[in-house]
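pinned: reference chain
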Amino acid sequence: MIDIHSHILPEIDDGPATLADALLMAELAVAGGNSAIFATPHLATRQDLEKAPCLTGHIARLQDALADAGIPLRLLPGMEVYPDEFVVEAAAAGYPITLGHGGKYLLLETPPIRFPLGFEHLIYGLELQGITVILAHPERSAAVQDTPQVLEPFVQRGVLLQTNAGSLLGRQGPRAEETARRLLALHWVQFVASDAHSPRRRRPGLAPVMRRLTDLVGQDMAAALVKRNGQCIIDGRSIDSAPLAYQAARKGWRLFGWFARACRS
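pinned: its structure tokens
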């Protein structure tokens, strides 16, 4: 399995505090069925851009430590990017902020409270550069929990979604779990990732969520969410799911509307 969202690099923002903890996270990832994991530290400000060119070195050092420890886990570069106008400028300037440094997919943090003015314009600016946006854990956003339809314009234009394994397992609250399930039912989700931060809290490893995913969307779709679509990122291939997602969404909103009316009557 391939985990596209993790904070596994030691001594960087809110990831593991030590190399020992990072190695333990890697062991847990392998035990949880992972063969590869993207290291995605936060990119929140213009000042954080200084971290981007250094990321390759951090990953190489941890990869060497994994080899020395006999842990068979492939590390790949990336960043979890905060939605701000400087992101478009940074991508245009060639900063290595996309997943795998391939210039094709960018992991964008979903606004936690509400979608700010200009959010759609930001996505459009990235699209003009040939970058596909992946929204990280939208099920944790209050705006999406209150009104999942807020995502529909973005899904229509090809924005992809990544939900957290912990959300689907009920570890990030009932609202996050309910919203993640709803987004899966609408066929809007293309990735399930750990968003791991330590060997103790929000641990890596996707095997625990596979049974839940298989029950919710079937074995084939579950495999796409935790492996095939991640491999597409590594290979630089397209993930063309927007038309299917849109058709499923229209049907889904009708079903949810009928259910809500039935509950009120």
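why pinned: Residues 60 and 117 are 38 Å apart (CA to CA). The domain at 2-264 is CATH 3.20.20.140 (TIM Barrel).
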